[in-house]
Amino acid sequence: MDEFQTLVDADERIEPRDAMPEAYRRTLIRQIAQHAHSEIIGMQPEGNWISRAPSLRRKAILMAKVQDEAGHGLYLYGAAETLGVDRAELLDLLHEGKQRYSSIFNYPTLTWADMGAIGWLVDGAAIVNQVPICRCSYGPYARAMVRICKEESFHQRQGFEILHTLSRGTAAQHAMAQDAVDRWWWPSLMMFGPPDDQSPNSAQSMAWRIKRFSNDDLRQKFVDMTVPQAEVLGLTLPDPQIRWNAERGHHDFGDIDWSEFFAVLNGNGPCNAVRLERRRRAHEEGAWVREAATAYADKHRRVSSTAGAA
Amino acid sequence: MSVATLPDLATYALRLGDDSLVLSQRLGGWITNAPELEEDVALANIALDLLGQARTLLSYAGEVEGAGRDEDDLAYLRDERDFRNVALAELPNSNFAVTMARQLCFSTWQLALHQRLTSSADETLAGVAGKAVKEVSYHRDHATQWVLRLGDGTDESHRRMQSGLERVWPYVAELFTTDELEQRLASDGVAVDVSALRPEWDAHVDSVLQEATLTRPEGGPMLPAGGRRGIHTESFGFLLAEMQHLHRSHPGATW
Ligand SMILES: [Fe+2]
Ligand SMILES: [Fe+2]
User: Which residue of B has its CA nearest to A65?
Assistant: First the structure.
């Protein structure tokens, strides 16, 4: 396997047929599956507002966005399948609570402004996390990420635009926007994962070039990127400790409440149960449809092969 | 201005726009609830196509009316009795079989309609139809494939598909019910006389049902078939309440 590490160190792509350490394969399956699950569970908080979008233009944009997320799920399950698992198996693990998805989607979307805050902050954080994965050592994952990142940056701009309009709208709209940012800011910072000194798997992932920057570095990058955007929006980030630190060349910011992060991670967030329940229900209620499609395909395969034989 | 006093052309655009808007709103309810991820994508696609049609048609209705109403005024600020969609479009999703029965019936009709509307004397309607024909061909194909799979799939799916058809069938007759307004516009070459679409519709639907081993329901038309006159089903008020509530809570706001 030294050959493997040499390839990785040389920034070559590992492809499905290449030899790879079993631990590398398992780590990738877990990470890509978790990423795919996040895309499809992430459809729910925004799907929650499709029927109520306040203009037809916003409804179309939101519907297209949620559809994009389903597409991201499809690319990523496809990438995971190149490692010898299948989508059905991974979905079962999700439904049984044996694989995770991003905790951010366990927060509720309470007002229309949450569509803006999610696009701006959550898609924004996702981009910061995911752009480096476009150069990940595993080819199919890296290529899926290139397509996904392009769409995520659209989502981020659309979210920004929703908030921009609200912030400059009526007093009630401005308040709605500020409230959404207040609620989504800290959970967005948590999307980068625990601080580096509490992130046990990071070093190995870095050596395998699945990961390229530490959680704290990515978080800092996100804060630095977001602070000036908040000013343009005319909205306040709910952290009085945010200030520019000329010496570090970065923004300082306050302490994250990691007890909240771990509580949500361990299933005690506001929507953990609802999200999984909804996913399971769609899957179970769709079982007869999938069975019918399989039965139909089997019948017609048989018919056409009989016809071929005759 | 109430819908009853609109110019014919505005009412006609509103009818077709409402069909697309209301069905899009229903289909949007499948996103995150579909039987598989590919269907979340496919149904979102169809809903988006319909929403696009609705936006153009409602904007046009507002323009023809000339009272300064835009697509959102028409979508969000009319009450139930002023909506002009066929009742079929508003039927609740219920389960996947009912939705696919609704899709087959509606898209087969909508395709036949828009194919003729491409040669409308009204350029805007002809333009909408030209684009819609491409979109709706896919919608019809999507529904056709599913009705075949479900009808000729398992015993359970066959039973569900048959009962889905029975559910929507009473609302089919309205699709082919013409009225004076439509006749006036049709005689000017602007609108399509929907009563002429039935043979083509029957031919497609019957062949799909036959291949899917399904039985064409016997049920006659629901009376009164009133969507076009603003007589809707009970569930429709809830659809509008959900769709319109946020917009109406902030009068005059920009989104
Ligand atoms: Fe995504
Ligand atoms: Fe996104």
Answer: B44
Distance from the A220 Cα atom to the nearest Cα atom in chain B, whole angstroms: 32
Output the CA torsion B97→B107→B57→A52 (10° steps): 10
| B51 with A63: Cβ contact below 8 A | yes
- Residues A90, B44, B94, B153, Cα dihedral to 10°: -60
Q: pLDDT tens digit string along A50-94?
A: 999 999 999 999 999 999 999 999 999 999 999 999 999 999 999
Q: Give the rounded percent of residues in chain B with a pLDDT score beyond 70.
A: 95
A residues 57-86 closer than 8 Å to B (CB): 57-60, 63-64, 66-67, 70-71, 73-74, 77
Query: What residues in A contact B45, CB-CB < 8 Å?
Result: 67
All residues at 6 or more sequence positions from A219 whose CB lies less than 8 Å from its CB, including other chains: A189, A192
Each residue's pLDDT tens digit, B110-134? 999 999 999 999 999 999 999 999 9
- Reported as type and span, the H/E element at residue A245 is strand A243-245
Residue A310 predicted with pLDDT over 50: no
Q: How far apart are CA A165 and CA A211, in angstroms?
A: 36
Look up the ipTM and state it: 0.97
Q: Between vectors from CA B127 to CA B125 and to CA B131, what angle results, nearest 5°?
A: 115
Q: Please report the domains of chain B, with CATH numbers, ordered by start residue.
A: 3-217+229-249 (1.20.1260.10)
Interface check B171 vs A, CB under 8 A: no
Is B166 an 8 Å CB contact of chain A? no
Residue A171 confidence (pLDDT): 98
A88, two tokens: 């059905």
User: Hey, is the C-beta of B253 within 8 angstroms of any chain A C-beta?
Assistant: yes
Shortest alpha-carbon distance between residue A88 and chain B (Å): 10
Cα separation, B201 vs A109, in Å, equals 43
Name the closest residue on chain B to residue A66, using Cα atoms.
B31
The rounded Å distance from CA A38 to ligand 2 centre is 10
pTM: 0.96
Residue B189, phi then psi, degrees to nearest 5: 75, 15
B57, two tokens:
């048609």
